[in-house]
Amino acid sequence: MTVQTVTGAIELDQLGRTLMHEHLFIAFPGAEYDPTAVFDRAGVIAEAVKRLRQLREEHGVRSFVDPCPIELGRDAGMMAEIAEKSEMNVICTTGFYFEAMGFPVYWRARTVEEIAELYISEITQGIGKTGVKAGAIKVATGAPKITELEEKFLAAACLAQKATGVPIITHTQDGYGGPQQQKLFADGGVEAHRCLIGHCCGNPDPSYHKQVVDGGSYIGFDRIGLHRYMPDETRADNLVKLVRSGHRAQIMMSQDRHCGWLGKFARQVSPEEQAKIDALKAAGQWPPPYTYLFTDFVPMLRERGLNEQEIFSILDENPRRFFAGGALPPAMAT
Q1: 217-235 residue pLDDT tens
Q2: How far is CA 96 from the centre of its chain?
Q3: Which DSSP state fits 266?
Q4: Model pTM?
Q5: Do the Cβ atoms of 329 and 93 come closer than 8 Å?
Q6: Nearby residues of 54 by Cβ (< 8 Å), 6 or more positions away
Q7: Which of 60, 105, 245, 310 has its C-alpha lying 20 to 30 A from 72's C-alpha?
Q8: 37 burial class (0-12, 13-18, 19+ CB within 10 angstroms)?
Q9: Whole-angstrom Cα distance, residue 242 to residue 44?
Q10: Residue range 57-96, pLDDT digits in tens
Q11: Which residues contact 209 (CB under 8 A, 6 or more apart)?
């Protein structure tokens, strides 16, 4: 059994410690037309290589999943160059973002089968002329409910998953839509454990998390450090509750961070927030480092009583089982 990275297939045991939802570079559609948006490709590559090497050397991370949607600046060739120079396994995805912030007009007009053909081609043949193959499928839905157009793209992902066997990684917006995604995957014939329902830590309600894990999927606590969406204290409390209820094998931890961004954010930023960003940039701390999960969040889990094996099995064992497609172990409360 192998896993497809941007530099080629690797054996499962080469995955090692894995961050399941991070980004190297993001560019929202239209940013390329902003005369103030400057893309320093060499600079982005150098910064990404430095940050990935730090993850590897200081925290033992060996694999880095970047589920960047197709239309958000995904650059497979640049990913491959960063992976080679940093000696990090980087896994990219095929798939689009959600309706309110993505879906190019051309692809909105395509059938489910045509969208699936694109996904299958990027998995089996490669992305464009780069030769880089996607190792997973990205699905994204908005809030407060999944739209009809999003259902079409999700149905295409189901066809591609069944045709290729690669897993699905999702985006949910504002803590909505996880159980609905699971139902649509089931309707499309995709097994629940082949899906990672992303950004569930954006919902503070433990009953929501229980719905997702009871549905048989992996659950993403993968916006750690994004305090704008949820305090990390709440994330840590809820993660520990899942571990103690026997669902440790279903949890994925990551941060949804980036080290390169073209132009401005896809929203207006308040003067106060901009001042904080400018101060962090001046201190060399913007974008925030990928190491935060280890330096700040892991200690919060220790304070709440989790031991080293409980914490690091989430980062070491769960990604390997997810990509292998193996069945989840039965839940055992502790």
Answers
A1: 999 999 999 998 999 999 9
A2: 13
A3: S
A4: 0.97
A5: no
A6: 289, 290, 291
A7: 60
A8: middle
A9: 37
A10: 999 999 999 999 999 999 999 999 999 999 999 999 999 9
A11: 200, 203, 219, 238, 241, 242
